[in-house]
Amino acid sequence: MAQRVDALTQRMGRTARAAADGVGPVLTIMSREMRDTLRDWRIVVPIVVLVTIFPVLANFVASSGVGFLSRYGGDLIAERLFPFLMLVVGFFPSTFSLVIALETFVGEKERRSLEPLLATPLSDVQLYLGKLLAATVPPVLASYLGMVVYTLMLGLVVGWWPDLSLFILAMALSTIESVVMVAGAVIVSSQSTSVRAANLVASFIIVPMALLLQAEASLLLFANYDALWLIGLGLLIVATLLVRLGVRVFSREQLLGREIDELDLKAGLSTLWGALWPRRGLVHLYRREIPRLIRGLKMELLVTVLVVGAGGLLIGMWAVHHWPLPVEIFNLEPMTDPTALESLMDQSGLLPSFSTGAVFLNNVRALLLAGVLGLLSLGTLALLLLLIPVALIAYIGMQIGQLGISPWLFLAVTVLPHGIIELPAAIVATAQAMRMGDVILQPPDEGGGVLGIVREAGHFIKVLALIVAPLLLIAAWVEVHVTPRLLVWFMNRL
Question: Of 398, 418, 420, which is closest to residue 410 (Cα–Cα)?
Answer without folding.
Answer: 398
